[in-house]
Design goal:
Rossmann fold; 340 residues; seven-stranded antiparallel β-sheet; alpha+beta; 31% strand; D-amino Acid Aminotransferase, Chain A, domain 1; Dna Ligase, domain 1; 7 helices; 3 domains; six-stranded mixed β-sheet
Length: 340
Amino acid sequence: MYRRVSQAILLNKLHRVRVYGSLSREYPVDLLFFDPGGIDWARERVGGLLLKRGRWQQGYFAFPKIIYNRCFPEPQDLLLRLGQILGSEHIFNDRTHFDKWDVYQSLEEQGLGEYLPRTYKYTDDDFGEILTRHPSLILKPRLSHGGAGVLKLTLLTPSVIIIRSGVGIPVPLIGADLFIPLLLATAPPETFIAQEYIESAVLGDDRFDVRILMQKNGGGNWEVGGELSRIGLASNLLTNHYHTIAAPADFVPSPLLARLRVISQAVAESLDGSYAILGELGVDFLIDVEGNPWILEVNGKPDKSLFWGLADKALLRRIYLNPLAYQGHLLSTLQARQVP
């Protein structure tokens, strides 16, 4: 028999997560870290690292009770198999690699369309029409992250278009009979979406976004775990290329920031259960030149390392411990159901 640990974190690759090493001294719960390669299905055991009050121990353990998935992309077949053994309700963040088109449709159906740039799943036949309707378009891979593969198109005349990527130099293309097939080959309709371009508000020579990290807490309720802004040059297309991490409260009006929190709560509640079994997600906003908020991205595996740039110890403690507290809530709930 192998010892069974109640709470576990599934990683892409097994390693010691240092921040949990220090936090475990104040959070007296044994925590197992493991990766897909550590699962021994035949012997029903997991090889991993056990963290107990700041000490790491390597060994083999029985399948844990509650799993917090931090793999990106999520190992779908593996999570399905674990869910069949443990129960699907014992795993959260079972989807971390969000499909932008599926998320757009889900949020629009839940009444959040007013905060979403018009987005299209285009075809060879209607791409030219969409480009005419929105002379400035963003093309995004449906499954990309970190701004990879994003293109901005600006139609100057029916036969002249400007194309740019990331921090790249804008390049003119002439002749619709040439540039439309080229764009469709570069951004295939099967894997890309088209989104209307929203002009961002600026701070001097910079542009910014606002990220709201939504997490479930020890009561099983959604709350704002943290918030930050990435600030980059206005000449850059994406805020992924940033030079500063800042607190949004320093330059976003309080009523607008409160509104972003409310919208993020609605996003979390809309996607949780219907799209994935979630315990956290990140919502990225752009504020336009008129001060209106737009949802640009929803992240299934929000990057917590960005929050270290704020040097806020209480915030860091909260965003790393919230998922563990939520695991504790799930354990209490499941145990209560088992009491006759």
